Amino acid sequence: MLRIENTGKSQMKSRNRVRVFREILNHEGISRKQLEKRLGLSAPSVTRVVEELLREGLICEEGTEQTHMGRRPVMLCVKKNAYYSVGMNLSRSRLYYCIRNLGGEPVHSGEIRLLGKTKGDQLLSLMEHAVQDCLESAGIEKKHLLAIGIASRGTVNEGKGSVIYSPDSGEEIHVKEYMGARYDCEILVENNVIADLKGQYLDLSGTNRNLVYLYISDGVGGSIICNGQVIDGENSMAGKFAHILVESGGRRCACGKRGHLESYVSKPAMEEAYFEASGKRLELPEICRLAGEGEKAAAAVLKDAIDKLAIGINQILLVVNPGTLVLYGDLFESVDGILERLKQKTKELAFTEEIADNCWMVRETKNVRIEDSIARLSVERALEIIV
Q: Residue 133: CB partners within 8 Å, gap ≥ 6?
């Protein structure tokens, strides 16, 4: 197992081992000499680690590097199927899961529908079942599991590895403790919106170090990158955009308070508002289609949602002033021209139009697989890429 010891020479040797393995993993092929230069390690140190990894079947020697003179060095590559990672995305209605090899190739995936209000012990049991299904379906032994990543809705304490999945019950679910007692591997627990942000957009911080991600679906969530760092807040409450006040004394939010953003722009909220106005039960995409055709009730619901969303976005932009605003959800894919409408409304509300003159992006639903993102992030954590 690629594990770092706690003290002394053993710590240094195991750390070098992880560093070498990580460097080989991040390149299609790399020579021993390149490892020495990149990592600042001596030739004997690199040779010792490489020989250990070769003996254990974690890496292999493949081909040679083209040079103009002298001997062609042997290239080192990671055996993609030496280790695997499991990723899980715990949403409001389903548990999605997958297992991937070190090359990022999917091996197996599945989903479990959540019925009613699921308690903590039931969710933990379902997570364990998901891991076992991955291992058994892929024919993989438990010892080849490098990491498990769990991304969940709700409030996540990453340090403790716990989740408050339901704000109604307030039950703290100790995910890391439970899974860690059953699987001898890295366990990473993260909020699902933050996991998607880290998995897909953290690289943007190289050119734009200030970014906000706003997620609207069955609920509303978000995350903030400021100066290249994800902002969690004192109690992991940063980015709880669902509870931005957009109308004093307005509709009741799921949290029990009134006038919060989620009670106007979430998928269930818009569908309920349309039902109250028309007496018809329709899905959000159909409501948006009717609004585009000029149907009065649908158009009124959509206008109200966009107006309230602009109020919320205006507050976010004023506080964070990001260079990039990433929007995700059915609403943004179901309404033609919604970005321009939102931008214009936000500019009307802002004290200066410049506040909305940043990069606005829509993340397409078809590209979102949070279970994949958290599986990859868990491997990076195991190899100390995330520090």
A: 97, 108, 110
Residue 260 clears pLDDT 80, i.e. is over it: yes
Segment (H or E) for 226: strand 220-226
CB 198 within 8 A of CB 230: yes
Percentages of the chain per state (helix, strand, coil), in multiples of 5: 45, 20, 35
d(CA 140, CA 355): 51
Q: Which CATH class is domain 84-198+369-382?
A: alpha beta
pLDDT one-digit tens code per residue, 365-378: 877 899 999 999 99
Angle at 377 between CA 199 and CA 222, to 5 degrees: 45
Q: Token pair of 332, please?
A: 């943004």
Alpha-carbon distances of 109 from 92, 133, 192, 195, 225, rounded to whole Å: 19, 9, 17, 18, 30
d(CA 380, CA 362): 26
Residue 20 contacts residue 36 (beta carbons within 8 Å): no
Assign 59 to helix, strand or coil: strand
Whether 192 and 151 have beta carbons less than 8 Å apart is answered as yes
CA 103 – CA 239 distance, rounded (Å):
32
- What architecture does CATH give domain 204-366? 2-Layer Sandwich (3.30)
Cβ-in-10-Å burial (0-12, 13-18, 19+) of 115 comes to exposed
Q: Which residues make up the CATH 1.10.10.10 domain(s) of the chain?
A: 8-78
Residue with tokens 């704000």: 167
Greatest extent of the chain over all pairs of C-alpha atoms, in Å:
80
Residue 303 pLDDT class (50, 70, 90 cuts): very high
Tokens standing for 255?
């949290």
CATH number of 8-78: 1.10.10.10
Task: Tell me the C-alpha distance between 370 and 164, whole Å.
Answer: 19
User: 107-136, pLDDT tens digit by residue?
Assistant: 999 999 998 778 999 999 999 999 999 999
Q: β-strands 94-101, 74-78: how paired?
A: unpaired
Going by C-alpha positions, the residue among 96, 98, 17 that lies closest to residue 56 is 17
Taking only the tens place, the pLDDT of each residue in 68-104 is 555 667 899 989 998 999 999 998 889 999 999 998 8
